[in-house]
Amino acid sequence: MVQVHEDVDDLVRLRRQLHQHPELRFTEHRTAAALADRLAPIGRVRTGIAGTGLLVEIDGRAPGPAVLLRADMDAYPVQDAKEADYASTNPGVCHACGHDVHMTVVYGVAARLAAEPPARGSVTLLFQPAEEIPFGEASGAAAALADEALRGRRYDAVLGLHCWPDLPVGTVGVDRETAMAAKDAFRIEVLGRAAHAATPALGRDAILGLSGIVNLLHAGVARSRNPHELVAFNIGTISGGASQSQVAAHAEATGTLRTHDEATRERLKEVIERIARQQAAALDLGLRFTWANEMPPVRNAGSLVRLAHAELPGSVEVADLAEPPLTTDDFALLGALGPSLYVKLGVTGERGGAPLHSGSFDVDERCLTAGVTALERLTRAVLDGRLAAEDATAAGSGDTGRADQRSAADDGRSVEAVRA
């Protein structure tokens, strides 16, 4: 049997190895090779999933429930600002969102399952590439779902976790219903007419038009949301023009809208596009508006939320998270494979506390054993049939759980998002 103190040292070594050698989306070749070498003695390893991902299958001693554990693999395009000896050696690339921790935790669960094989059921590990999605580019989760290795598969539970600097090490946060927000990215291209700066009346200024659109969008979104609606709106890039002496013929901006509620989402998308088109028309400018990377929210299944609160206390501290964040994650699409639960792993202690996507992001590595313990306990509970018991208890009490209902509804949206 794997000893806990040996497990901790090994997990720290793996996490630091992955942190030192981060790779961007769909280029995670070294990462995949390192994980495949470690996992080959544990289960059946299939490489090349969605290009650079891995699928690892571990069987219990008899047939039973099926569990999928997901870890994202890619790093973030930011310079590592830490001076630690395990800092990134890849300039401009850093595990600034904790994916090195996610991979290490899922590997740690696999090692414990190998040390003490489950009596029944099966566990599939998905090491997924490309969770970080630049504008207009493909989702790694969508690519994994389209891979023949996962096509048509169903699981009794789809589990994952995300590093969370707002929580202390040793704590696992469980959102009651929505774990991550929906995301809708957009590009606005303003089309003007070039002219010399000395004769501006002969042109149509795309930069001036875009400036007005940006200001109106911030005001319009703010005034189109109700106080109780959780919304984030951001314009993240602006570019345009060719010379300081020319009226710009082209300017563009990209941004993102994050919401939790479908009605709010659709209303604000209509507001954003309408404002942009009306302002461009008022200034006699052309406009191309593009939506991209439309991602549904991550919904936690009510049965799995109840299971977490029943199984995890005593092993880790459990935080009941009542207000979901406005971060997003393509784990949302994996709800198409079965009821899902995405928990938040506390990482702040002696180290940690810097925000996600910061070059200073780091974790207190005691979070590794907390994460392994949490996911292992949930996995074994499902394999032992305790999820079915939670469902039966809820049905007997008449509480089917709004999260279960919304998860089922979002499963349909997730499948459509994959097909789009």
Describe the structure.
The model is unreliable at 1-6 and 401-420 (pLDDT under 50). Helix 5 runs antiparallel to helix 6 (262-282). The protein is α/β, with parallel strands linked by helices. It is globular, with a radius of gyration of 23 Å. An eight-stranded mixed beta sheet has the order 1-2-4-3-5-16-6-15, with helices on both faces. A four-stranded antiparallel beta sheet has the order 10-12-8-13, with helices on one face. The chain has helices spanning 4-20, 29-39, 99-115, 140-146, 206-224, 262-282, 302-311, 367-383, 386-397, 402-419, and strands at residues 44-49, 53-59, 66-72, 122-128, 157-168, 171-175, 178-180, 182-191, 195-196, 231-240, 246-247, 250-259, 286-295, 298-299, 317-321, 340-348. The two termini are 46 Å apart.
**Assembly status:** single chain
Into which percent range does the helicity of residues fall?
25-40%
The helix count comes to: 10
Largest beta-sheet details = 8 strands, mixed
Q: Bin the strand percentage.
A: 25-35%
Kindly provide the radius of gyration, computed on alpha-carbon positions and rounded to a whole number of angstroms. 23 Å
Beta strand count: 16
Q: What best-fitting shape do the alpha-carbon axes yield?
A: globular
Reading the helices and strands in chain order gives HHEEEHEHEEEEEHEEEHEEHEEHHH
Mean pLDDT: 93
First-residue to last-residue Cα separation: 46 Å
Helix/strand layout:
Layout lengths: L3 H17 L8 H11 L4 E6 L3 E7 L6 E7 L26 H17 L6 E7 L11 H7 L10 E12 L2 E5 L2 E3 L1 E10 L3 E2 L9 H19 L6 E10 L5 E2 L2 E10 L2 H21 L3 E10 L2 E2 L2 H10 L5 E5 L18 E9 L18 H17 L2 H12 L4 H18 L1
Parallel strand pairs: 3-4, 3-5, 5-16, 6-15
Antiparallel strand pairs: 1-2, 2-4, 6-16, 7-14, 8-12, 8-13, 9-11, 10-12
Helix pairs in contact: 1-3, 3-8, 5-6, 7-9
